[in-house]
Amino acid sequence: MDRELIEQKLESLRRCLQRIEEKCPSDPDSLKRDPDLQDIVTLNLTRAVQLCVDLGAHLIVDLNVPPPDTMGQTFDALSLAGVVPEKLAVQLKKAVGFRNIAVHNYEEIDWTIVHRIARHHLSAFAEFAKIISARFA
């Protein structure tokens, strides 16, 4: 695997998480009322999910694990291979579900859920980044 590519993706992931932390308001109602903040938070969350899927796919190739059929199955495969804990795989699969809603059906986004993800669940992305980083150190 190309270590430089992995480092670039990890840095992009770090920047996405930082933007979410910086821009997500402290209460969900503020997010509901501000389309600019909605765009910033949603874009960076969807990017973070995509980056994790991309990093997971690179790792799957290195592990010679059968390729997943869906983005969410990327994390199942990594869990079955013993690379990520099952709990983390479940969290990241849920994040893929959010990404799919955000990308394909923007009008139905529940901003309270987005706020909860942004304020309380970014640690799953950071944990995944640490696992990836440690595997390629």
Molecular structure report:
The protein is mainly alpha-helical and 137 residues long. The chain has one domain (3-135): Up-down Bundle (Four Helix Bundle (Hemerythrin (Met), subunit A)), CATH 1.20.120. It has helices at residues 3-23, 28-33, 35-63, 71-80, 86-104, 111-120, 123-135. The model has no long low-confidence stretch (mean pLDDT 93).
In a few lines, what is going on in this structure?
This protein is mainly α and 137 residues long.
Order of helices and strands: HHHHHHH
Annotated CATH architecture = Up-down Bundle
Beta-strand content bin = under 5%
Mean pLDDT: 93
Low-confidence stretches: none
Proportion of helical residues: over 70%
CATH hierarchy, class: Mainly Alpha
Cα-based radius of gyration, to the nearest Å? 15 Å
Label the overall shape: globular
CATH superfamily: bsu32300-like
CATH-derived topology: Four Helix Bundle (Hemerythrin (Met), subunit A)
- Number of continuous helical runs: 7
Domain count, please report it: 1
Please give the number of β-strands. 0
State the end-to-end distance.
12 Å
Largest sheet: none
Class by helix and strand content?
A: mainly alpha
